[in-house]
Write a structure and sequence with these properties.
The protein is of the alpha/beta class and 263 residues long. It is built from 12 helices and 8 strands. It has an 8-stranded parallel beta barrel, surrounded by 5 helices. Bound molecules: 2-phosphoglycolic acid.
């Protein structure tokens, strides 16, 4: 049975002064057996969130929102995978806001993913199409190309053992209040596993957790988790509201129980 994951992407919100409190409150409101919870604060808040969770609820993992593709060097302002050791155990790679704002390519994202794996960080690889691509009927082609660009040439067994999770985030749904339908997201989850299979991932493809992301709330989470092919959510805006996270993780807990993961 595939793992059920709810990951919070705080984006460029919170400061070291208030992040610990938000992490503690979120952790306390989201205790659901069988659900893997991850909080991804901005880099400067990783230590505060880690310290808060170490005492409040060590079951909640800490993730970074990005990582550099080199280990060290003259890259002013950047953060490498070894620097995250001890501060994070997960990392988001390929978020559409970085593809858009930092011009990240699939190849670069693949190298970042490789650095995450080497450093023992669990990668969340984000993929998703733009609105015009969906309207042109190209959504699946785009996502396949992104997966291929980031994963071709990587060792499936090693990457799978690192705990890779894929997040399908249609770009037009991120931060817009306009979410995909459960059926469309489920169809894309199936297409993602088929692409992995085509890349030679075999059994690992069938076992790959695929999350949905894009305007997820406590109100619409059921639309996604009612679909057996969807294994959780990557939550942006709503992840800053503990009430919202409580509702989202409670619904994920139902899925975890139905899958026999709740112990
Ligand atoms: P959103 O963001 O939930 O605010 O749409 C999701 C994401 O960017 O991961």
């Amino acid at each position: 049975m595939r793992e059920v994951v709810v990951a919070a992407n705080w984006k460029m919100h919170t400061t070291p002064a208030d992040a610990g409190d938000l992490a503690r409150t979120t952790a306390a409101r989201t205790r659901e057996p069988g659900v893997t919870r991850v909080i991804c604060p901005p880099y400067p808040c990783l230590a505060a969130v880690g310290a808060a969770l170490a005492t409040a609820d060590p079951d909640v993992a800490v993730g970074a929102q990005n990582v550099h593709d080199e280990l060290a060097g003259a890259y002013t302002g950047e953060i490498s995978a070894p620097m995250l050791a001890g501060l994070a155990t997960w990392v988001i790679v390929g978020h559409s806001e970085r593809r858009r704002d930092a011009g990240e390519t699939d190849e670069l994202i693949g190298r970042k993913l490789g650095r995450a794996v080497e450093a023992g960080l669990r990668p969340i690889l984000c993929v998703g199409e733009q609105l015009d691509e969906r309207e042109a009927g190209l959504a699946t082609d785009v996502v396949e190309r992104q997966l291929h660009g980031a994963l071709a040439g990587r060792d499936p067994a090693e990457t799978n053992a690192a705990g890779l999770v894929i997040a399908y985030e249609p770009v037009w749904a991120i931060g817009t209040g306009r979410n995909a339908t459960g059926a469309d997201a489920a169809a894309m989850s199936d297409a993602i596993r088929s692409s992995l299979d085509a890349l030679g991932w075999g059994d690992f493809a069938a076992g790959m957790p695929v999350l949905y992301g894009g305007s997820v709330t406590s109100t619409n989470i059921d639309t996604f988790l009612a679909e057996p092919s969807i294994d959780g959510a990557l939550v942006g805006g709503a992840s800053l509201k503990p009430d919202e996270m409580a509702g989202i993780v409670a619904r994920a807990g139902m899925t975890a129980r139905a899958r026999g993961l709740a112990g």
